[in-house]
Each structure stands twice: as structure tokens, then as C-alpha cells.
Amino acid sequence: MSSTPSAKADGTVLTGVSETALMTLQVRATEARRSDAILDDPMAIQLMDSIDFDFAKFGTPRRQDMAVRSLAFDRHTRRYLQDHPKATVVALAEGLQTSFYRLDAADVGHEFRWLTVDLPPMIELRRKLLPASERVQMAAQSALDFSWMDRVDTEHGVFVTAEGLLMYLQPEEALGLIGECATRFPGGQMMFDLPPAWFASGITRGLLRPSLRYRVPPMPFSLTPSQAAGLVHDIPGIRAVHDVPIPPGRGRVFNALVWAAQRIPVFDPVRPVFTLLEFG
């Protein structure tokens, strides 16, 4: 850590959609503490231990979906960095993700750059609690304020991540963000995830909740795999769309369900979407 705080940071400064970052952090840190963890994330453990917050409000953290999601994003970010070792990774609405530290410990070298884009309270927490690096910049602003794009060095490639972001935007906002990235970062890539429509509707209507004490913010945007594939025709600048496989998790039942959902077309309308875009 950059310094040892005299007291834990106050997690209650995060509200609304930003508060969901505490829930996903809890899930990843709980997973990383397991002896059979599928995600090696020591920084997530340190980060959670540095925040004063009633994490119990989120219910049981014994789930692996957020860890599996992070594995998927790590996998494809690594692939891009292996081909573009000096690229800039832009993490939109990064929240309390610790992706930079996991990738920096991987096999992609230490030349890639990182730009975190998030709201001021989140950036303040990250500056206070995470180790500083000259390769990491932070933009304290909404991802929908496109001025952050002016800070991106495009010379060596750009990989944009929108992990756990687009579902909380209005459809026109989400598609506008994708379109602007496609225009500004030719040759780059962008990865995002979305829940299926039934799940997003259940969250928005308050029918699906992680606990009786916590209600996830509304999710107005979702796409089916076929709708995501159609982005190559709908948004100028997108050269290719890839339906990203969900990485294996822990347990035969979990992996069997994931395998079936991704390979049997009848499940397409009811499964999550992990999408990788290539910009032309």
C-alpha cells in the first residue's frame, strides 16, 4: 500500500451505482481468500480490509460470478497486451476493481499504461487506498463525459473495459459511448458485459435482490447475443464483434450450466452477454 491509513476509509461515501463496487469487491475478496480460489487477487483482500462499511448488507458473498467475470476481462485484456505490450488500458467506471495489479503480476510485461475513469468519490478512495504507479492515471469524471478520451495515448493501442457499467446506462447512453470509442480508437478493442433482459428487469423492479437490506440500482440496458452481434452493422467503426466465452469456475454443476448456456442457442435470450468489439 502507498501508506498505512490511521483509520479505515469510509465506504459510505459511495452511493447509488457507485455503491455496487463495494458489493463486487466483497465477492472478489471473499473468493480470493478461499484455499481453492479461482481468482488470485491479494489486492482485493487488502482493499476490502481497508474500508469501513457494513458489507453484511449485501447478503452472502459466497458466490463466484464476479470473480468469473473478472477472469474473463483479464483474459482478453492480457491477449491484447501480449500483442500490444505498450498499449493503454482504459477502465471505465472501474470502481474498486484491482485489474491493473493482477495484470501487472501476469506475463504481459510492465510497459502498458492504465487510465481509470470514475466519479470523484471513487477516485478519491482509489488514490487513498491503492498503491500509486507512474503508469496509472485517473480521470475523476463520468465515462459519459468524453473529454477523458483526450488523455488516451493511442500510439501503441487502446483496450477499453466497461466491466459492470453499461447495464446501468440508458440505451442511448450506452450505444453512444460505444460509438464514440469506435470513432476515437481505431485499431483498438472494447469489452463489456450485460445481464439478460429478464435479470435486468427483475433488478429494476426490485424482484431480484442480493438481500432484504439491499436493492441493486435499476438496469435499463441489456442486449441478447444476437443484438450484440448486430452492433457491427449498427455502429460505424466496429469491425468485428465476438461473443466471449465465460471462463470455467468452480464446481461441475456451475461449469455444466455455463457450457450449456453458451452452446445451445435456445438459451441465448436468457444468458449474460460478454462481448469483445474490434474497432476498424
From TrEMBL:
<keyword id="KW-0808">Transferase</keyword>
<dbReference type="GO" id="GO:0008168">
    <property type="term" value="F:methyltransferase activity"/>
</dbReference>
<keyword id="KW-0489">Methyltransferase</keyword>
<dbReference type="InterPro" id="IPR029063">
    <property type="entry name" value="SAM-dependent_MTases_sf"/>
</dbReference>
<dbReference type="InterPro" id="IPR007213">
    <property type="entry name" value="Ppm1/Ppm2/Tcmp"/>
</dbReference>
<dbReference type="GO" id="GO:0032259">
    <property type="term" value="P:methylation"/>
</dbReference>
<dbReference type="InterPro" id="IPR016874">
    <property type="entry name" value="TcmP-like"/>
</dbReference>
<protein>
    <submittedName>
        <fullName>O-methyltransferase</fullName>
    </submittedName>
</protein>
<dbReference type="Pfam" id="PF04072">
    <property type="entry name" value="LCM"/>
</dbReference>
